[in-house]
Amino acid sequence: MPLGAVAVTTPSLSPVPFVVLDACVLMSGIMRRLMLRLAADGVYQPVWTERIGEEWRRNAARLWAIPPEVLQEQWAAMNQLFPQATELDTQAYEAGLRYSDPKDFHVIAAGLARRARCGLQQPPQVLVATWNLKDFNRSELRRQGLDALNPDRLLSLWWQADAGRLRQAIQAVPADYIALGRDPEPLAATLHRERLYRLKALVARDAPQAR
């Protein structure tokens, strides 16, 4: 399961958010490729930690029977493409957390570490992308200057803000699906399976205009 073709381009000069990619988001080959493609296009700047990478690789090897060495190669490729993504020394930022699930403190801490490293004069927007919103106390995150969104909500907001920046990346999803060794299927079917229901509806409304 190759990482897929991701060409790194020069990011936009306008501020873009930092997004911590939780391991559950990286689990899907389709979602991972789409999110990395959007990062390469400068839509956002990805953030992760070695612990997030370990959790993803461990679960992917167990659930999808992917050889660990293949997953390690993909992780190495991700870090080569985005050398600034990894946050180190995040444990200190877990100390003030109380109301989110303790097993996800490390994910929040990655966002807090990135926010602190960027400075407080003009603090950046830092988001957590996760399917496990119930494990993240939104009030606690917002007090810390963060927010958490599931991928469907996040991608839909980005689409509504600037569909042009997302359209090409999303139109490549059917090729991603085939690259994973599956038979071709309509884009809408893949988005539905990936639980991207809002995004699917937005793309469908855009289709007549795109023709």
Q: How would you sum up the global shape?
A: globular
What is the arithmetic mean of pLDDT?
A: 91
How many E-type strands? 4
Please give the radius of gyration in angstroms: 17 Å
Strand order of the largest sheet: 2-1-3-4
Helix-strand makeup class: alpha/beta
Output the number of helix runs.
Answer: 11
Unreliable sequence segments: 1-13
| Biggest pleated-sheet summary | 4 strands, parallel
H/E element sequence? EHHEHHHEHEHHHHH
Q: Percentage of helical residues?
A: 40-55%
Distance between the termini: 32 Å
Could you tell me the strand content as a percent range? 5-15%
Provide tags for this entry.
single chain, 7% strand, disordered N terminus, four-stranded parallel sheet, 211 residues, 4 strands
Task: Describe the protein's topology.
Layout: E1 18-21, H1 23-26, H2 29-40, E2 45-47, H3 50-64, H4 68-81, H5 105-117, E3 126-129, H6 138-143, E4 146-149, H7 151-161, H8 163-171, H9 173-179, H10 187-193, H11 197-210
Helix pairs in contact: 3-4, 7-8, 7-11, 10-11
Provide a concise account of the structure shown.
The protein is an alpha/beta fold.
Structural commentary:
This protein is an alpha/beta fold. The chain is 53% helix and 7% strand. The chain has 11 helices and 4 strands, in the order βααβαααβαβααααα. It has helices at residues 23-26, 29-40, 50-64, 68-81, 105-117, 138-143, 151-161, 163-171, 173-179, 187-193, 197-210, and strands at residues 18-21, 45-47, 126-129, 146-149. A 4-stranded parallel β-sheet has the order 2-1-3-4, sandwiched between helices. Helix 6 links the parallel strand 3 and strand 4 (146-149). It is globular, with a radius of gyration of 17 Å.
